[in-house]
Write a structure and sequence with these properties.
Length: 228
């Protein structure tokens, strides 16, 4: 009975979607935002056709992944159609579950934008991507108390924060140190991959947006487009 009630309420959560230019994507949520103390509730139902197609797309791209069960964590944090990426060709640190659509876009960005830019601009192959993670049941950070009461796209496993890149020649390019680097090639590399991200993801936030993003690129597939 509890599962049926959650499934019935979920469309209402989606219909309450709100977005404001400059936020990292959010949905109204109860106060305070915190997951259920008793743990997540597994949602039972058929896999949507869109999600099935996304799984097929990942398989065609030779991506190793594991589909994850749909779950309601409480506090407005609901994760559906998510996957765990096991191998995309380049190691990525700290990845948890992420919605399949985000995973598909992220893989395309790494393979077709970040890796080529590293080789062409910095003269070395990309061997690792560093992230601060994906899913986190929390509100928006950095935009005041009102924004903090609204669910971040991270609470839907629909966002990933990228902090740095490691190259074959052992150089480590971080967003925090490289964004205003004295090295023009490093700045150019980050500018190019930022511009590419803005064409792929719905919302992209960089150190130019606010202090909360001084050390990473926030990438999500929520409402948009918004690029900063």
């Amino acid at each position: 009975m509890r599962i049926r009630l959650v499934l019935a309420l979920f469309p209402l959560l989606l219909s309450a979607c709100v977005f404001g230019g400059g936020d990292d994507g959010y949905r109204p949520a109860p106060r305070p935002i915190r997951p259920n103390a008793s743990g997540p509730v597994t949602l039972i139902g058929p896999t949507p056709r869109e999600t099935q197609q996304c799984f097929t797309d990942l398989q065609r791209e030779d991506v190793r992944f594991s589909p994850l069960p749909d779950r309601d964590y409480g506090g407005g944090c609901v994760v559906q159609g998510a996957v765990e990426l096991l191998d995309i060709g380049v190691p990525v640190t700290n990845l948890k579950g992420m919605r399949c659509g985000l995973a598909r876009t992220f893989i395309g960005w790494v393979r077709n934008a970040v890796a080529p830019a590293a080789y062409q601009i910095l003269g070395s192959e990309l061997v690792k991507v560093e992230s601060f993670g994906t899913y986190s049941c929390r509100g928006i950070v950095g935009n005041g108390e009102a924004a903090a009461q609204k669910i971040s796209e991270h609470g839907l496993a629909n966002a990933v924060d990228i902090s740095g890149f490691v190259l074959r020649d052992d150089r480590r390019i971080t967003v925090e140190e490289g964004w205003h680097s004295r090295d023009p090639d490093v700045r150019r590399f980050l500018e190019v991959i930022h511009a590419s991200a803005c064409k792929r993801f719905h919302t992209v936030l960089s150190p130019d947006y606010n202090a909360a993003h001084h050390n990473h690129l926030h990438l999500d597939m929520g409402k948009g487009p918004f690029c900063a």
